[in-house]
Design brief:
Elements lengths: L19 H12 L4 H18 L9 H12 L15 H5 L19 H12 L4 H21 L6 H11 L16 H21 L6
Helix pairs in contact: 1-2, 2-3, 5-6, 6-7, 6-8
């Protein structure tokens, strides 16, 4: 009797565990049939059982398509049957996706955030004029605020202009500008005022009003 015991440690891994080992064995049985008509018959029965095991997906538009794809995947693409859908290709499923590119082009200036770089790239495209100039100084002021949040209580405008010049690939140059950015104390004060407002809300939450 012991010889008939089958331990999980010696069983093959389940390709899609949600369907269990019995479905896996049914698929192997279908693959072993010499008659294609018989394989087709068994495959349709397996699809029916798989559908009953996933009733919550019946309303999905491509439900049947997913079941047939999973059937071929669990057969390791060896099952030769007629499918109402294109058979998935093993090479495509096993292909590694292209790595996502990290959007931060200047890691040493990451304290500015990715949105700043996006704004700079967009500003470069604008035609020269008052609107573009206003946008550039808005970006520079926001950069100054980000810098102060990250590092110090003060920073020279020239530092911000230098960073803006570098982040824009030398396309935005305010280094010789006579305009000044908002004073550091103003930017710091607005940050503290916002922080105090959040603290006030947190400490007054749940208090009864009389």
């Amino acid at each position: 009797m012991k010889d008939n015991l089958e331990y999980n440690s010696v069983r093959e891994d389940l390709i899609i565990p949600e369907y269990g080992r019995h479905i896996q064995k049914m698929i192997h049985h279908a693959s072993s049939q010499k008659s294609k008509d018989e394989r087709n018959k068994i495959a349709k029965s397996i699809i029916s059982v798989m559908g009953n095991l996933q009733p919550h997906l019946r309303d999905v538009s491509d439900f049947q398509h997913k079941l047939w794809d999973q059937l071929f995947i669990m057969s390791d693409f060896d099952l030769d049957v007629d499918s109402p859908f294109d058979k998935p290709k093993k090479e495509e499923l096993l292909a590694k996706p292209d790595p996502l590119s990290y959007p931060q082009n200047f890691p040493k200036y990451r304290f500015y955030g990715n949105n700043i770089k996006i704004m700079i790239d967009e500003a470069v495209k604008w035609d020269s004029g008052d609107k573009k100039e206003a946008l550039l100084y808005t970006i520079a002021n926001h950069m100054k605020k980000c810098f102060l949040n990250w590092n110090k209580d003060s920073v020279e405008d020239q530092v911000i202009f230098d960073h803006l010049y570098e982040l824009s690939d030398s396309k935005i140059d305010l280094r010789n500008s006579k305009e000044t950015l908002l004073d550091s104390s103003v930017l710091i004060r607005s940050k503290k005022r916002y922080s105090n407002k959040k603290y006030f809300k947190k400490n007054n939450k749940g208090r009864k009003r009389f």
